[in-house]
Amino acid sequence: MKLVVTEEQRELRDALRRFFADRSPAAEVRRLMETAEGHDPGVWRLMAEQLGLQGLAIAEEHGGAGFGVRELAVVFEEMGRAVVCSPFLATITAAAALGAGEGGHDLLAGLADGSVIGTLAVAEDGGSWDPASVRATFEDGVLRGAKNFVLDGRVADLVLVAARGGDGVGVYAVEDAAGLVRQVLPTLDQTRRLARIELDGAAARRVGGPEALARALDVAAVALAAEQLGGAQRTLDMTVEYAKVRHQFGRPIGSFQAVKHRCADMFVMVESARSAVLNAAAAADESPGELPAAAALAQAYCSEAFFHTAGEAIQLHGGIGFTWEHDAHLYFKRAQSSRELFGSPDRHRERLAALAGLTGAAAAP
């Protein structure tokens, strides 16, 4: 696998950085945190019409651009840097499930052009993202049960549900939203919306089996890892910059050895996270058999890296780092909530050990 960033990907990164600096500055993020939708529909349209982000990794025959997860990783890294409020992760996860499934390809065009916001509902009241824990059922054409921690579940136009049918756990597209009861959940990270969905006889059709669900969760794990990498890089950058300008005892605090060591540790974690993301994204595009292990490794490590750098950013900024006015708390809350999304770091390490044959634990996502 080629673990390098191409010139085209660098150009994409530069364009995205400019776009999000203009459309998602900290002041706008704070404004969107207070809105019911949790995102700006106008920016969502621009992402689709000007940049083609929603369809970036969707096949051309289904209305997308036909790129891969490596390009998606570039997008998510830049979104993580800017703490963008957007249903992009939810929609990409839904697209991955449809793309890997045997049905529902007709639904991809709407996701690709941005006219449809999608989401994949897996976790239930226990909070587990393991398909083996799914208890929702599909029988006689309808879904019954409940889903918790659904990404952007309130605003999603297309809800894909992991449920048990006659042949095990599959993915079902809800065709009648009248059978859904949605409830917005309070969250620590106010930049990302979660919802609980009650499935009260919602009409649905099967669009994929266990393989489609596994692929979607692995792609989502890689995407989230890339987002965490972007957040970790940004917290490192802001901390280093602050250490250069904040003076104590007549000298910049960055000149003190203790501060240097902590910044150096942050740098090592960020660069290691970058390697994990590059490897996982390349596996998704070139070596699907290696993706489950690569995704588990990336998600476990990047969760810890972002949580560590975000915490260090607050500590090294001193008193101002703890205030509402400073942006450090936006990254810390995102880091804390993201490390539980799609499974905790411990869960991903357990999965990685199982895939490596080191334990008897289940190897499910």
TrEMBL record:
Family annotation (Pfam families): Acyl-CoA_dh_1, Acyl-CoA_dh_N
Q: The organism sits in which domain of life?
A: Bacteria
On whether Oxidoreductase is a keyword of this UniProt record, the answer is yes
> Which stretches are annotated as coiled coil?
none
UniProt cofactor(s)? FAD
Q: Does the keyword Flavoprotein apply?
A: yes
Query: Where is the Acyl-CoA dehydrogenase/oxidase C-terminal domain positioned along the sequence?
Result: 211-354
Q: Which InterPro entries match?
A: Acyl-CoA_Oxase/DH_mid-dom_sf, AcylCo_DH-like_C, AcylCo_DH/oxidase_C, AcylCoA_DH/ox_N, AcylCoA_DH/ox_N_sf, AcylCoA_DH/oxidase_NM_dom_sf
Q: Which CDD domains match?
A: ACAD (cd00567)
**Protein name in the entry:** Alkylation response protein AidB-like acyl-CoA dehydrogenase
Q: What is the lineage of its organism?
A: Bacteria, Bacillati, Actinomycetota, Actinomycetes, Streptosporangiales
